[in-house]
Description:
Helix content: 40-55%
Number of strands: 6
Number of domains: 2
Oligomer: single chain
Strand order of the largest sheet: 1-2-3-4
Low-confidence stretches: 133-157
Structural class: alpha+beta
CATH class of the largest domain: Alpha Beta
Radius of gyration: 23 Å
Mean pLDDT: 75
CATH topology of the largest domain: Nuclear Transport Factor 2, Chain: A
Largest sheet: 4 strands, antiparallel
Distance between the termini: 60 Å
Amino acid sequence: MDDKRRFESVYSKKVRAGKRRTYFFDVRRTKGNDYYLTITESTRRFEGDGYERHKIFLYKEDFNRFVAGLEDTVKHIKTDLMPDYDYDEYDRRHEEYERRKAEGTLDHYNKDKSDEVVEEVADEKLNAEAAEEVIEEADTSTPEDDVIDDDDDDLKW
């Protein structure tokens, strides 16, 4: 088997995640006819042409631990950190986008979504500026305040 064929995907799954990000799950074959998974995040660059890509190689001996760790982490976020968040919101948006695309009414949908994005960015900017002000007001400590207590293993800040 030549090198080109060795690196071909034997199975591939593409997951779009918004306008700028796509995930690729590719099963590839080794020289010894074993298989491994590559997970690629591809993000369109803001400043122009091209994409940034980040890749993870996942081997069969790590599948169970990786999936268990991923599921545990996502469950922790969904149940403990953000239980009230609507995790299906983006699936509904994507379904609406695909429906409008099929109907040919996508231009109107994109304009509506563009207006929402502008409002969200403006809100986030205001929130970030307010947070910076709070941090600046709260950060009145001096370097002498950062002390390590030799009697205790905890750091004092």
